[in-house]
Write a structure and sequence with these properties.
This protein is mainly beta and about 500 residues long. The chain is about 5% helix and about 40% strand. The structure holds copper (II) ion.
Length: about 500
């Protein structure tokens, strides 16, 4: 009877709070070959099945594996080609989140990959060491495709990260943690069916997983261990904390290293955000610590300290020097209002009153201009804000520079905008002029993004003469491509 009860609890998905099961899966590093000096990756986007629950096959999507994707690793300066082949029965795209690449290589909604075809992202890596990720970005389908399992990590190394004495053996003391949560049907298939209220409030679940494993166990040595943490969920905030309340050091934000490690006891990540943390397990041989999510009170992962292998014992006190811009250097300010249109709480998600329109350029950003963007959330729900290709620094929260947390004082590409609050960021787009291909900015709560809380900007040489191939109507900062004397398919996207 007792066994029956515990199985019933398992079926209800609550076991994750009580027991730890399999070892934490470490996504394999994606194999590559060098072809004429170019590092070539072949990534198959495929349908498969995964056993989240013992003995039960759950239909999933993955990239070179059954769920999630292999880790793509590259070095600043590398020439890269990533061939994404779509072996699904539906179209998708593959966007490099956090990647500073030309708009035509961004993998946004226009870079559609039809079933049976291959799309190639080709560029030279041009950014600091950082933890990024790749995931679909198809209009209206991003949330579902990520939920089905399409997400993988991209790790960028550079000379600085090579030389710093940090844990850096992948899967041993440098551990990727892709945290997600999912709902399942009674037959244990992934259930993606948000109601209108769940689109607003978040399609969340208490069944959490790391790297596709519910309640995993990880064995580590009694040294400094680095975790590359990605909130890969659709719309769940994770507040991470260790069961013994121990402190740890955050060394990197979305865009790479912080100048100095920041000591924390808990780490809050909104969807799409990354943080690299280093945890000191010296003196813990033979003991176990649990990584917890405190907003929903979930035990995420048990960490067993069971080896004394050599490793890193101290974290460098200085990591990098970041280029910073003063507010007085900005030549332009822009405002972005996150709210709904038509129907209040049940209306459509929009930015500045405009739901996403793929045929509209909302902002034209001149290259090398320093700009301040103010993003305001006037709703009673959580949002965040993600900008493609550009990393920014926070200037203020709610008008206060002092309200920017120490671990937010690095380069970011996703920033939390809590209910009824505002954030001011400063940024400069340094390259990749292309008036004919847009980059996205959007809320990274994927249900909000899919519903329309997204806009599009281009990077131009000269704002007064952006040299469009098409005939746009320019009104304030809005460029509308319709009606145009050119057919839409004349636009090179
Ligand atoms: Cu949102």
């Amino acid at each position: 009877m007792r066994r029956y009860i515990s199985l019933s609890i398992l079926w209800m998905g609550f076991l994750s709070t009580a027991l730890f099961a399999g070892a934490l899966p470490i996504p394999a590093l994606a194999p590559y070959s060098w072809v004429n000096g170019v590092k070539v990756f072949n990534m198959n986007i495929q349908q498969s099945s995964t056993q989240f629950f013992a003995g039960i096959n759950t239909r999933t999507y993955g990239i070179n594996q059954s769920v999630l994707g292999q880790t793509i690793r590259m070095h600043d300066g590398d020439k890269i080609k990533i061939n994404y082949t779509n072996r699904l029965s539906e179209a998708t795209t593959m966007h490099g989140h956090g990647m500073h690449v030309p708009a035509s290589m961004d993998g946004g909604p226009k870079n559609k990959i039809q079933p049976g075809t291959t799309w190639t992202a080709s560029y030279t890596v041009n950014q600091p060491a950082s933890t990024n990720w790749y995931h679909p970005h198809l209009m209206g389908k991003t949330a579902e495709h990520v939920y089905m399992g399409l997400a993988g990590m991209i790790i960028i190394d550079d000379d600085k990260s090579d030389s710093l004495n940090l844990p850096k053996t992948y899967g041993v003391d440098d551990i990727p943690l892709i945290i997600q949560d999912k709902r399942f049907t009674a037959s244990r298939q992934i259930l993606y069916a948000p109601t209108r209220m769940e689109i607003m409030r978040g399609y969340t679940s208490s069944t959490m997983m790391i790297n596709g494993e519910i309640s995993p166990t990880l064995s580590v040595k009694d040294k400094q261990i680095r975790f590359r943490v990605l909130n890969g969920s659709n719309s769940t905030l994770y507040n991470l904390r260790f069961s013994d309340g121990r402190s740890f050091k955050q060394i990197a934000t979305d865009g790479g290293f912080l100048e100095r490690p920041v000591t924390l006891n808990s780490l809050l990540l909104t969807p799409g955000e990354r943080a690299e943390i280093v945890v000191n397990f010296s003196g813990d041989l033979g003991s176990s610590v649990t990584l917890r999510e405190t907003r929903q009170n979930i035990n995420l992962m048990q960490i067993n300290v069971n080896s004394t292998s050599p490793g890193v014992t101290t974290v460098p006190s200085t990591l990098t020097t970041l280029e910073k811009y003063a507010a007085s250097q900005a030549v332009r300010t822009r405002s972005f209002l996150l709210n709904t249109v038509g129907g209040g709480m049940m209306g459509q998600m929009a930015i500045n009153g405009r739901p996403m329109n793929i045929n509209r350029i909302d902002n034209v950003v001149p290259v090398n201009d320093i700009e301040i963007w103010t993003i305001r959330n006037t709703m009673n729900v959580e949002h965040n804000f993600h900008i493609h290709a550009i990393h920014f620094m926070l200037l203020e929260r709610n008008g206060s520079p002092a309200s920017v947390a120490a671990n937010e004082r690095g380069y970011k590409d996703v920033v939390r905008i809590p209910p009824n609050s505002s954030v001011k960021v400063i940024l400069k787009m340094k390259d990749y002029v292309d008036p004919n291909n847009g980059y996205m900015y959007h809320c990274h709560f994927l249900e909000h993004e899919d519903d329309g809380m997204m806009g599009q900007f281009t990077v131009v040489q000269n704002k007064s003469n952006p040299v469009f191939k098409w005939a746009p109507i320019v009104s304030d900062d809005i460029v509308t491509m319709v009606p145009s004397p050119l057919p839409l398919n004349a636009v090179t996207y």
